[in-house]
Design brief:
The protein is of the alpha+beta class and about 80 residues long. The chain has helices at about 20-25, 55-65; strands at about 5-10, 30-40, 45-55, 70-80. The chain has a single domain, classed as Alpha-Beta Plaits, CATH 3.30.70.1150. It is built from two helices and four strands, in the order βαββαβ. The chain is globular.
Length: about 80
């Protein structure tokens, strides 16, 4: 199956949503190439980037599920590869 490389940008504004976010990422761990999170304490948010290599429908599922979490914003960009 053809895969795409994408970067999922996540901003977590409610720390109580962390468990839900981590559960989703854990479920799709086989597709994750890298994951980086940075706490921005001055603004009381966390900024994450997750690089994935997965079929398009899987990337859309990950982004869609993350986007439904309260207090979380998500955007996905795709590589031209």
């Amino acid at each position: 199956m053809e895969t795409r490389v994408a970067l999922i940008g996540i901003i977590l504004q409610k720390t109580e949503s962390t468990d839900k976010l981590n559960a989703i990422l854990h479920h799709y761990a086989d597709y994750i190439v890298s994951r980086m999170g940075v706490p921005y304490r001055e603004k009381e948010i966390n900024i994450m980037s997750v690089a994935v290599d997965a079929p398009l429908d899987v990337i859309n599922a990950i982004s869609g599920k993350i986007g439904k979490i309260d207090g979380v914003s998500v955007k996905t960009i795709y590589a031209q590869v």
